[in-house]
Amino acid sequence: MSDQTGAAAQARSRTSLNLSLPPKLRQWVDAQVQSGRYGNASEYIRDLIRQDQRREAERILEELLIQGLEPTGSHWDDERPDFQQIAKLLQEKKQQRSP
Prior knowledge:
Layout: H1 3-12, H2 23-34, H3 41-68, H4 81-97
């Protein structure tokens, strides 16, 4: 499939979303497009959504890692310095997540 055919198929598979923005936010979006990083406002918004999806995936992964590192039995050696450091980091992460 050529790039043009793929782009056309991708364009047909999209839906529209209308946004209402205050003037200052619209100016910000326009400035991002004018900077050349984005071809239009839609590209900018799609990039923001993808960034948010990545942040959420990273948050979930971090939560799973923290759960996996919880001391769960005799294999957790409180005397080892590396385990003590992990335990301290876990405690800090938990405190950061608490409202």
